[in-house]
Amino acid sequence: MNGSFAEELYSESLKLSKIDLDSTSSAKNQALDFQDSDRDASLLDDESLWNGSDVELDKSSDLDREWQQRRDQFHTMGYRDGVIAGKEAAAQEGFNIGFKQSVPVGYNWGVVRGVTSAVGLLPEGLKEKLIETEEKRNQFQKLYKSVQSLSTKDALRLFNDAIVAERNREQVGNAEISSTDEIENQLESYYRELQSLVLGSPLINLQLKEQGTIP
């Protein structure tokens, strides 16, 4: 009887120990599973953070590239506009200088061609009445032929030579004078010669302006 009770008591103790062990093992397993799930969640959070940082970096890089492209584009546009404006300003300045230099000379040259042509084409009888001396008539005729021998292109070349000679004088001073400088401006010399002939012929009623001016 006593032996049977002891066996039953021992058997119950073993069952309880097994239950405790199973409970403890289950609790430990649950704790480990919970820790693993926390670790996985933490890893997922860290991964999402890193992925978020990569996205932000990509956006920042795109913005930087876009800004660089825009800046280069506007710099190029500004440089091109500046160059165009500079060329236009230089061209306008050159035109103003050329206009100021050429208009008086061109006007006087036109007067010389017009007057000498009018006198040169007159009949001899009218020339003798208008110009008293044969010497003056011959001088008018010589000037007329000299002027008529020059084409428009020749006149432009003479004008250009005079401008270049003037620049040379300004650069080297009066110490050196080239052959071109000695020739002077032929167009102006024709105008001066016409002035002299008109002054010596009172019947020619013509008011010539000072050289280098236009009315």
TrEMBL record:
Keywords: Cytoplasm, Nucleus. GO terms for cellular component: cytoplasm; nucleus. It is found in: Cytoplasm; Nucleus. The keyword Heme does not apply. It comes from Cannabis sativa (Hemp). This is Essential protein Yae1 N-terminal domain-containing protein. The keyword Electron transport does not apply. It comes from the Eukaryota. Its main location: cytoplasm.
